[in-house]
Amino acid sequence: MTEAGETGTRARDTGAPTGKAARELIAEAERLLDAARAVLADHTRATDAIHAALAPILDSLIHRELAAIPVSRLKDVTEGRLRLGAVEQAGYTTVGQVHEANRYELRQIPGVGAQTADQALAAAGQIAHAVRDTVALRIDVEAPDESTTALVMALHRLVEAGPDVRRAVDAARRLVGQLEPLLTEAGPARGRLRMLFARRQARTAALTAVSSVRTVVAEATERGLPLLFGQVSVDLLRAPESDLAAWVDFELRSAEYYSLLAEMSGTHPDRDAAEGFLPSGIADRVRGLRLDDAHLRVSLRGYQSFGARFALAQKRVILGDEMGLGKTVQAIAALAHLSARGETHFLVVCPASVLINWVRELRARSTLRVLPVHGPERHEAFADWRERGGVALTTFDALHTLPAARDGGKRPGMLVVDEAHYVKNPATRRSRAVSGWAGRTERVLFLTGTPMENRVEEFRSLVRHLQPELAPSIRTTHGVAGSHAFRRAVAPAYLRRNQEDVLTELPALVQVDEWEEFSEADLDAYREAVAAGQFMRMRRAAYARPETSAKLNRLRELVTEAAGNGLKVVVFSYFREVLTTVREALDNGVFGPVSGNVPAALRQELIDEFSTVDGHAVLLSQIQAGGVGLNMQAASVVILCEPQIKPTMEHQAVARAHRMGQIRTVQVHRLLATDSVDQRMLDILARKERLFDAYARRSDVAETTPDAVDVSDGSLARRIVEEEQLRLATGPTEP
């Protein structure tokens, strides 16, 4: 047999293409490899830019910390062996001064030899390294300077590119590792003569490599990697339009910037705290689980990834993180992981007040199919879910009306129950319905922000839904012993982290849009206001029927959760009558309202009284009265009853709590109604005004005269009324 015949036989045996087909395949693989290398190079340039901008800022912070540490602390590092008398007499009084000196300078000090100089420098270096691991970088949007602007712009490139960057980089690294050696071995197949004159062993290896290259290229194409690499490279090369645009983006999603900053700087919260002080055996098992984020559209922070993996590893648990830490996104990450591993059906049960938020979060944070199973068409939606899969979202009140997951029916890959304290009473219908589904589902995740160590009986009731064998071992004494002791005792079924433990890398401001759907009574009141063409009445229509108000119900839930965590709350509204409605809906411990008819001298006295209360309290304030000149930094939760016509007014109100002296992360919850004046206002205000307002907001003019930089009240009102009248077909009534 000729060598050409042998080559053809081996090609048929390996299934490898030959001749022109092989050359075309290799060319395609080389293009794919070039695209992968380009992504890695672009990512390296982006991260190098961040490190270059970050280094001088960290050095400055470390220098400031070291300048406050007395030089005597160097003895602690050397266990007292270091003699520092001569060094101190020479004027070196701080660790920072020693750290900045060099060996030659220290040796010039009388009585300091080479050994002492080296030991002092080594000890100062160890302290500097320890300081670097703990230093907290805060970016002040109110006082941007050249160095922080450079850092924000460098971070913007990666933040703007989004979570696809990580997937592209991981895929590119794997692809480069696979294709580089294969293309080297496939070298003889690039040309007919090269194949003809190659040794037999080389020809065989080349054909085997070509077959492997075809498999790698086919898999990469099926996963859409060529398109992903091209898009990510474009994103990584795209600079912000201006430094102002980067600052605006930072304000809008600062959490993502700080999360990336923590990753780049290597500063993370204490691991034990981030892992909820779990026993080492459970923590090790959770760490060993690799989270599949193929269906996620968001980058998780370290503690959030751990929370999702805890739910997956332990299967039936309560995630009890303090409010503001992202329990919803951790649940979504767990669902996305299971979807990537082949699960097709999931069920989320929640109060009606947060159902629309779940819909929005799932669509924004994942690629999972979402089906609201709520309202008059819930049975049709449920049947669709059973047939086609996805995430079914339903309410506690609707769950009992749905067919249970009996034998033969499709069982969810995971059941998620939000605001799980709703099922603490086993005698209620909602609790029995949840228990029925939980009993037939392998993985169950309860979410609640209420601290359970103070509610041991309630916790025991929830655990009976999940791990009934654990419930008898949970005793009241576990709660009395303190939060850490309680968490360790119930670790198989409970994970809780506090803000102060894990938010070291996050901004001091977390903003959440709380979208609600009008109740029937809300909608009737809103339609009446639209028909009358009364813009201000449209804005407060969500509170016109307090007994069925969706916004008011959500406000109560937020205040209740804040009370459970001992947090103070400020509630802002433009309308005095809305604040009156809120006051009547809340329990004791409500101050205010601070309003225009309260003399200016008395407003701060009212706020001071609110501030001195030990623990939870609620302050009500008209946004025009409380937005300027008052200090409310005792509050760490801000609730805005409705969006404001003037964005500066909203910003200034939040700034009353989020300012110097505030030691906790401030959570801002903006209550919004879908398909209403709220949505129209946000759509309009979010357009061209955003850049201009962000610039003006940092100016002296904006602080004193917000009217000068906002859009016209009248024109905005007329436009919204006309749009809503058209949408609701109520007729063109004159506003």
Automatic annotation (TrEMBL):
Nucleotide-binding as UniProt keyword: yes
Alphabetized UniProt keyword annotations: ATP-binding, Helicase, Hydrolase, Nucleotide-binding
SMART domains, A to Z: DEXDc, HELICc
Single GO MF annotation: helicase activity
Domain Helicase ATP-binding: 308-469
Domain Helicase C-terminal: 554-710
Superkingdom of origin: Bacteria
A Pfam family of this chain: SNF2-rel_dom
KW Protein biosynthesis (keyword) present: no
UniProt-listed Gene3D superfamilies: 5' to 3' exonuclease, C-terminal subdomain, P-loop containing nucleotide triphosphate hydrolases, Tandem AAA-ATPase domain
Protein name: DEAD/DEAH box helicase
Organism from which the protein derives: Streptomyces yanii
